[in-house]
Amino acid sequence: MEETITNITPEIPHRAGFVNIVGNPNVGKSTLMNDLVGERISIITSKAQTTRHRIMGIVNTPQYQIVYSDTPGVLKPKYKLQESMLEFSEGALTDADILLYVTDVVEDPEKNKDFLDRVAKEKIPVLLVINKVDLLKNNEELEKLVLAWRERLPNAEIFPTSAKEHFNLDNLKARIVELLPPSPPFFGKDALTDKPARFFVTEIIREKVLLHYDKEIPYSAEVLVEKFDEKEGAIHIMAVIYVERDSQKGILIGKGGEKIKRVGIEARQDIEKFFGKKVYLELFVKVEKDWRNRENKLKAFGYIE
């Protein structure tokens, strides 16, 4: 009697990995992160140092889990806050399965050379994302850029992209999935981020400060949520915007409270979109002198563990 042979397809193992996004300020890391995750996780403005924390965004399918990390732009620290920001960026080099180094078509490739030298020595897969290619005039300009970066990061795979125009991002996503190592998921399959709800409230308020104020104000401001009372149909939030000097407090509030009122209205609208609920937002402004250089304050704001 002949045996019946059945074709058995071996089960494809689940894959999961940490994909860390690093690079200099203002190259489009946060825009890229939001597109890759498919949700607005990171705030975006045209100002440098918009991202201060390391923020995770998690993509889940039955076959894989990708844990993306958006990090602050690499910079030479001038005060303790920036030292903490640089630690978030440097830490992203030590625990990644895949590294996304993001540059753009206008920045100097040798900016923050020491950090780039470390990226060049990485043994893990490095995907070099040349963002904002929509600003180039022709393909010759792009070819020159690719050749220059190929010399600088010879082991990296290069992806010319435009996060703004969604150009070539599907190919980048597909390559990330291919490179994921076999692994069980690191987070629950319904997880979107590792950050609590309060964190996104502070970021949304801080984004409005970045958008509506100039000079030193946005960089001297930090937000702390003192009350987050969530009920079935609504959330009551009390938040404090801290600045470093009395003069900054006056500018932030504006004549008759006009400026802080605008920040509150726009922040409340975005918070309502984020949570899908009615939001009651109370904003206060307080002075905390030289908080960017005070370790106890940096701990309170979540920059130092």
Description:
With 305 residues, the chain is an alpha/beta fold. The protein contains ten helices and nine strands. Helix 6 packs antiparallel against helix 9.
| Average of per-residue pLDDT values | 91
Tell me roughly what share of residues is in helical segments.
Answer: 25-40%
Give the strand tally: 9
How do the SSEs run, as a string of H and E?
A: EHEEHEHEHEHHHEEHHEH
Low-confidence stretches: none
Distance from first to last alpha carbon:
70 Å
SS-derived structural category: alpha/beta
If strands are numbered along the chain, what order do they take across the biggest sheet? 2-3-1-4-5-6
Produce a short descriptive summary:
This protein has 305 residues and is an alpha/beta fold. It has 10 helices and 9 strands.
List the SSEs and their pairings.
Layout lengths: L14 E9 L5 H9 L17 E6 L3 E7 L9 H12 L6 E7 L8 H8 L5 E6 L7 H14 L4 E4 L8 H11 L17 H16 L4 H4 L1 E9 L3 E10 L2 H8 L4 H18 L2 E10 L7 H6 L5
Parallel strand pairs: 1-3, 1-4, 4-5, 5-6, 8-9
Antiparallel strand pairs: 2-3, 7-8
Helix pairs in contact: 6-9
What are the key terms here?
alpha/beta, 305 residues, globular, 35% helix, 9 strands
